[in-house]
Amino acid sequence: MSVLVTGATGFIAQHIVNDLLKQGYKVIGTVRSEDKGKKLKSQFGNNDLLEMEVVPDIAQPRAFDDIFKKYSSEIKVVLHTASPFHFRATDYEKELLIPAIQGTKGLLQSIMEFGSQTVEHVVITSSIAAIKDTYRFLEKDLVYTEDNWNPISWSESQLNPQDAYRGSKNFAEKAAWDFLQHNKGLIKLNLTTINPALIFGPQLFAENITGTLNTSAEVINSFLQSMPDRDITNIRGDFVDVRDVSKAHLLAFQNEEAIGKRLGLSAGQFNGQDLAEILNRRFQQLRGVIPPCTSEGAYKIQPYAKFDNSKTKEILGFEFITLEKSLCDTAAQILKKEY
Ligand code: NDP
Question: 2-272+299-338 in CATH: which number?
Answer without folding.
Answer: 3.40.50.720
